[in-house]
Amino acid sequence: ASGMGLEPLFQAWSYFRRRKFRECADLCSQLLERPHGEQELDSEYTVFQAAWSLKTRALTEMVYVDEIDMDQEGIAEIILDENAIAQVARPGTSLKLPGTSQGGGPSPAVRPVTQSGRPITGFVRPSTQSGRPSTMEQAIRTPRTALTARPITSASGGYVRLGTASMLTNPDGPFINLSRLNLAKYAQKPKLAKALFEYIFHHENDVKNALDLAALATEHAQFKDWWWKVQIGKCYYRLGLYREAEKQFKSALKQQDMVDTFLYLAKVYLRLDQPVTALNLFKQGLDRFPGEVTLICGIARIYEEMNNISSAAEYYKDVLKQDNTHVEAIACIGSNHFYSDQPEIALRFYRRLLQMGVYNCQLFNNLGLCCFYAQQYDMTLSSFERALFLAENEEETADVWYNLGHVAVGIGDLNLAYQCFKLTLVNNNDYAEAYNNLAVLEMRKGHVEQARALLQTASSLAPHMYEPHFNFAILSEKIGDLQRSYTAAQKSEAAFPGHVDTQQLIKQLKEHFSML
């Protein structure tokens, strides 16, 4: 009879290992409805406790998000940030002023920048999406999540939305009533406590209760269990207590070297805007774990965010020496070659991604551009057609039409270019680059008023781009509106200080004004 009793539990464990979490949870629910007196063989736990533990793990896995990669800094975090950070950081020590350390990368004339002043990367990550808007209005308007038209709201809001999954997974109410749990009792049982912590943290998204449990458990372990210290650090990080989180992660590293702990600690330093400390930490980690891909990749990302493109490329190459199928490294090296005027080499990297089985709109879009600039015209249009076919949303479609507009300008078909840029705006009405290029085409037709209106729209949508400001300055100067021209030229110079044409225009205008 006891053999028969073990059978469903083994079945549930098998489901769990095969990642069939829904079936596993259902089977555990049936086991939990039985009378719970039977003892598990070779264990101090009863079948009931084993089923309870397995069900908590299955429910956690359904909504599990890796905390290391989940790093969205929302509007609330950016605008309401109370951490005092030096306003004028030394050059090359801050992520908020990345333009200060030009590390041999291409200028904004060649490689477009995001609103935070960083060059566009080859790989979309939450941190590269949002950037650091300078005003509340800009924050609400521009930072987009990867797919939605909603701005990235507070990160805590994102976690709460993940937490609502607890209602979906249990139609008849929550599996564990947290308010009635005696956390001190569970903290005495390390095996159950760990499963329960993960459940509270990921599934119920109740950081405060999770922190209480972790504090009791680490006390019970006499502060000798590094795992609990990392979990306390994660809770502090979520609550915005970065210095306390730093202490916990450092203490955990003293007891046990773990790659994940290095990554969590680096996240804390990056949030505190201390990239140099994070770099040193990653290098210490590499002394302990030579050739660890995630650590090398972390160094490369920081260099890329600090605008030090040449160092970033070197580290991405090191990543490929360890793991030659690392998508992020291949994509970033590819985009770096493309913007360094080596489209043929970039094409090889993107083809490598295609051979690896990456098959999406972005890849075919990049292949189309590389083929066009490498003068392989036969492949260009078929790549863009494939990209349009694979586009999953309007923003991706807009990108493809915008690039097709560039191809049309390149072959001299301005009517086609005009249509392409219009289609870009149909799909994404906030596409500043398309407004700018349409304005240039309108200027060629002699439609000055339309061109001015389009350029004003472009510069209000993307104040970080220098092109709309510069074009508006040139246009205003041509029609004799010198004051507006001077104002726009100054904005252009602020966005791209090294732009020679802007400097010449400002010099001309100053001469005009001095004559007046």
TrEMBL record:
Keywords: TPR repeat
Lipoprotein found in the keyword field: no
Keyword check for Phosphoprotein: no
Pfam family, one: TPR_16
Gene Ontology CC: BBSome; ciliary basal body; non-motile cilium
Repeat region (TPR), residues: 432-465
UniProt xrefs under InterPro entries: BBS8, TPR-like_helical_dom_sf, TPR_rpt
Superkingdom as given in the UniProt entry: Eukaryota
Region (Disordered): 97-139
Chain intervals with Polar residues compositional bias: 126-137
A biological process term (GO) from this entry: non-motile cilium assembly
PANTHER family to which the protein is assigned, alphabetical: TETRATRICOPEPTIDE REPEAT PROTEIN 8
Protein name: TTC8 protein
Higher taxonomy: Eukaryota, Metazoa, Chordata, Craniata, Vertebrata
